[in-house]
Amino acid sequence: MSVTTRPLRVATRSSRLALAQTEAVVERLRRSVPGVAVEIVPMTTRGDHGAWQDGARGAERVGAFVKELEVALQEGRADLAVHSLKDVPTDLPEGLVLGAFPEREDPRDVLVLPPAGSEPVERHGHAPTDATSALAVLGTGARLGTSSQRRGVQLRLLRPDLVAVPVRGNVETRLRRLDEGQVDALVLAGAGLRRLGLAHRATVWLGPEAVVPAAGQGTLAVECRADDGEVREALALLDRPELRAAAEAERAFLARTGAGCRWPVGAWARMVEGQELELVGFVAIPAGEVREGTAGWMAARGWRRVPLPRAVEADAPAWVDAARQLGESLADELLQRVRSGEGTFLESGAAGGV
Ligand SMILES: NCc1[nH]cc(CCC(=O)O)c1CC(=O)O
Fold first, then answer.
1. Does domain 241-348 correspond to CATH entry 3.40.50.1980?
2. Residues 279, 58, 190, 238, Cα dihedral to 10°
3. Residues of CATH 3.40.190.10 domain(s) within the chain?
4. Engineered SS bond to 11: which of 69, 90, 187, 281, CB 3.0-4.6 Å?
5. Ligand 1 pocket check for 187: Cβ under 6 Å
6. Tell me: the pLDDT tens digits for 239-296?
7. Nearest atom of ligand 1 to the alpha carbon of 189
8. Which of these, 146, 135, 156, lies nearest to 188 by C-alpha position?
């Protein structure tokens, strides 16, 4: 069956990671739609230019990696765009939809220590296998390279003495900063390392009990025009309902906890035992919102499950509703905890950082 005959133009960012993600989706498209003609349209976004890096925060920063691609879709210069879901704001622009969630890499963050053989790892005799022993390798006040409050706050909950140091740029640039000794450790998305063939740089994969990943981390999302029936039909062949359900739950959690631009938020949903969707969430709010004059964070982590029977799979809207409710109810529970002061308190870091 050929659902489309016209050539499809795929907008993508030009970074090595973005191109790898786009290649993966194009390959799936070619398998699902035999004979389809695909043209890749590489673009540079504001995020790549680093426009948001010089102090831009919140709304300005959200969407910096996807905006140009979306405008290309709206203006008809491209027919689909491949994104890392975690870069896609929860409110989509008018007239655009996420037509497929074709794959998800391992969503966990990883801790990257300097290459094996460096002195501290040898002193322990073996490579660490969990977050706590990996962090034990780092001396007091070690510099943790991350620009993400979500990562900085969660790792400082394990090791409050660590100092979060902003590290900008693409994955390769950040690894170079580590290798040059500008920081003592990095936290990155494991998915990015895997897709770049750099998984061997991951010292420890961080489970959600240590660091809850960003909503959508590791998931690829394909965006298209809502009224482009041909493309939507083609994308439907790539869509995986269980990834869509997870995406809905994580993004509902993110939207409910304040759009994720002001506060550290993490959310990871997945199918367990075949018929339940489990969501782990993390949120921290400035402690001053709970007790006036208190500097630092009030944090909470928790999880919830909802039955998502296979039988309902054909009825995607019911799945989506259940997934959204899961995200919203866990968000409400955790927000209630931090606002009532029942969360875990974390003092502000050195130099006013996270
Ligand atoms: N913040 C940029 C970004 N957007 C998506 C990924 C990783 C790949 C993914 O999550 O799918 C990264 C790099 C990182 O956070 O380390």
1. no
2. 70
3. 1-103+219-239, 109-212
4. 69
5. no
6. 999 999 999 999 999 999 975 457 899 999 999 987 899 999 999 999 998 989 999 9
7. 16
8. 146
